[in-house]
Structure formats: structure tokens, C-alpha cells
Amino acid sequence: MYIDLITVGKLKERYWREACLEYEKRLSRYHKLKTITVADEKDPADQGAKAIAKVCQLEGQRIEQKIAPHSYVIALDVKGNRYDSEGFAQHLAQLESRGHTHLTLIIGGSHGLSPAVLTQANERISFSDFTFPHQLMRVILLEQVYRASRINAGEPYHK
Predict the structure, then answer these.
(1) Minimal CB count within 10 Å: which of 87, 97, 121, 143?
(2) Mean pLDDT of 118-137
(3) Where is S-adenosyl-L-methionine bound in this sequence (predicted)?
(4) Per-residue pLDDT for 158 more than 90?
(5) Paired strand residues for 75
(6) d(CA 119, CA 13)
(7) What confidence score (pLDDT) does residue 5 get?
(8) Average pLDDT, the chain
(9) CB 43 within 8 A of CB 112
């Protein structure tokens, strides 16, 4: 399966980059993974809803330009569906068995995803009601895709 991971903003800290690189290396055994980073918008001085919506809109436009045609798009959204690790693995296997051989996973910036990106997604998933920094979420998502890949390959994984 081809997997595109679209994220907003660079990983500035070395420890985030190293964690992501480790999971990307592990995942290369199972999937063709491409990480696509789009620029984040500077946080507006005005933290009002209108200013935040504008930030999400601009980041969303950059994300939309990077979504491959015919890709099955999963956006990370706090209001999305929830899976445990086995359920997520099963879901990914079902998508592939239905002919979805190109998957796009999207992590928004610090203010989330634009309504346009959320509408374009085939589905939304959530990992928790907690709010995580988007840099950490990238590590968590890569780890869960790796775990799902091991489960689907019938390999042991840490429970």
C-alpha cells in the first residue's frame, strides 16, 4: 500500500524528527511511505474565531494541493471514529482488500483542519479526547500504522 502522510509544519525538535525517522524506517518494510509537509501559518495575534478560521483555511488549501487523486483520505479529527490497535489494523486491511491501495493520512496544524479538508476526507479518525501537539501526533500515528502493519502481517507486537 502507498501511504502519504500530509502534515502541517516542520518538526523543529531533533527528538521528534528522530522518532518519526525510526518509524518511517520500520514502516518501509510494509508500505511505500511518503511524508509531505506543508507550511504552517504564523499564529495570529488576534486569537478570535475568524482569525483562527483563516489560518486553517490557508493551511487547508496547501493540504488539498498535496492530496493524490484517487487516494483514500483519512483526516485526524477529535470528532472522528475511534479504533483500538487491532480494529485499526483490521480497518486498514479491509481498505486494501476493497482496492484502496493509496492511503492519505492528514494531520492538521495547531488549530486543526479546515472544514474543506474535513469534507474532502473519506473518513475521520480520532485517537483520544485529549489534545496532543501535532508533532507528537505524527509520532503516535506512525507508530499505530506500524503496529497495524505488524498485526496484519501476523507478527508479534507489544500489547
Answers:
(1) 97
(2) 93
(3) 76, 108
(4) no
(5) 106, 124
(6) 31
(7) 98
(8) 94
(9) no
Measured in whole angstroms, the distance separating CA 24 from the mean position of its chain's CA atoms is 13
Residue entry with cell 491501495: 101
User: Cα-flanking dihedrals φ and ψ of residue 65, to 5°?
Assistant: -65, -20
Report the binding-site residues for S-adenosyl-L-methionine.
76, 108
Per DSSP, the residues of 139-158 read: HHHHHHHHHHHHHHTT----
Which residue is listed with cell 485526524?
A: 76
* pTM of structure: 0.94
Q: Where are the alpha helices (DSSP H) in the chain?
A: 14-27, 49-66, 85-97, 115-120, 134-152
How deeply is 2 buried, as exposed, middle or buried, from its count of CB atoms within 10 A (0-12, 13-18, 19+)?
A: middle
For the structural domain made of 2-40+49-150, what CATH number should be given? 3.40.1280.10
Nearest to 89 by CA among 129, 136, 125: 125
Q: Compute the half-sphere exposure of residue 130: CA atoms within 13 Å on the CB side of its CA.
A: 8
- What is the spatial distance between Cα 20 and Cα 54, in angstroms, rounded to a whole number? 29
| Cβ atoms 36, 105 nearer than 8 A | no
Q: How many residues does the chain have?
A: 159
- Chain position carrying cell 514502516: 27
Annotated binding site: 76, 108
